[in-house]
Specification:
Structural class: alpha/beta
CATH architecture: 3-Layer(aba) Sandwich
Radius of gyration: 21 Å
Number of domains: 1
Number of helices: 15
Distance between the termini: 21 Å
Helix content: 40-55%
CATH class: Alpha Beta
């Protein structure tokens, strides 16, 4: 679907060569640790460039935390890790005001969320109250404690891992929390060749220990600005709106995509186009990202559950049903 005519009208010069060069270094660095998962690595980087947050969900032992740590270590910026446990408190995440005996005043002690990249390990093992401590910082890039608001650094990204909710000792993420994650990513088991390479590469030492940064926060901020400039034609924007609106009208769903999900779908599509070296977004980008961006936000109705249909299957039906814009649509729009 690359021949969309004026759907592919480029915007102004955006420095895509620099973006691709830096992105290739970051991806290559991560792949020294994560074997046989190029699509997962690329999508994780796209979320960073889209100023989003990443939820990695899968069974234990498939490399969820390693992917999060490898991305964090590939960028020379501040990184904090939070191990989510049932006794973790919201103040451990956001920070707390402590009375100073010497100054006779309260002073703010920042929590773990004050970093460029925050790695939240097994987020669904903490209580919903503690999970909700991330809501403000993920959406507004700020933290409010005792009536005072503190701005977070840029770039800011939360990379959270979670086990399937069927696992023991886990809580479901609240709907508002899931909606703030731009993409949900499943790692999956490696193929035999990748698993064999992992045994050779990880058998004696952990390559994560030797991983150094290949970029920094300032460079990532520049890449984010570049991704923002990617051109999106009006018919492609309407296609994104139509896709999300169709989820709200689907009889098999109790809850469809929010306006926030439409915005994040388009932002992630811009980042993916930039990684491909394109100055424009195609409908193909939206179709490829519909599952990772929308599926975790949807709530299935009783009929879908009875018929054992997942959110991805419902989305696949919607993608087949919603008309795809063409070059003719773009010409008529002008």
């Amino acid at each position: 679907m690359t021949a969309h005519g004026t759907l592919a009208e480029p915007g102004p010069g955006t420095g895509l060569d620099d973006l691709q060069a830096v992105s290739a270094r970051i991806i290559g660095n991560i792949e020294r640790v994560i074997e046989g998962k190029p699509d997962a690595v690329r999508l994780a980087l796209a979320v960073l460039l889209a100023e989003g947050h990443l939820l990695i969900e899968d069974v234990p032992g498939v490399g969820k935390t390693k992917l999060a740590k490898a991305l964090a270590r590939s960028i020379d910026c501040s990184v904090r890790r939070i191990q989510f446990t049932p006794d973790l408190l919201p103040s451990d995440v956001t920070g707390v005001s402590v009375y100073n005996q010497e100054t006779r005043d309260f002073e703010f002690k920042p929590g773990a969320v004050f970093a460029n990249l925050v790695v939240g390990d097994e987020i669904n093992r903490a209580s919903p109250k503690t999970q909700s401590a991330l809501l403000e910082c993920m959406e507004e890039r700020q933290v409010t404690v005792d009536g005072t608001t503190y701005e977070l650094q840029s770039p800011f990204m939360v990379i959270a891992t979670q086990n399937p909710i069927e696992m023991e000792g886990t809580y479901s993420l609240p709907e508002a929390q899931r909606d703030r994650f731009t993409v949900r990513l499943a790692m999956g088991y490696p193929d035999p060749a990748a698993e064999l390479a992992m045994l050779d590469g990880h058998g004696r030492t952990d390559p994560l220990d030797e991983l150094g940064p290949v970029s920094d926060a300032a460079q990532v901020r520049a890449l984010i600005q570049t991704a923002r400039q990617i051109y999106v034609a009006d018919p492609v924007k309407r296609y994104a709106v139509d896709l999300v609106a169709a989820t709200r009208e689907a009889p098999e769903l109790r809850l469809g995509g929010s306006p926030r999900s439409t915005l994040q779908l388009l932002r992630t599509a811009r980042a993916v186009a930039a990684l491909d070296g394109r100055e424009f977004v195609l409908p193909d980008d939206l179709q490829a990202l519909a599952g990772p961006v929308l599926a975790h936000r949807l709530l299935l109705g009783a009929d879908a559950q009875i018929n054992h249909r997942g959110a991805e299957q419902v989305l696949a039906d919607i993608l087949r049903r919603v008309p795809v814009p063409t070059a003719r649509d773009s010409r008529e729009d002008r």
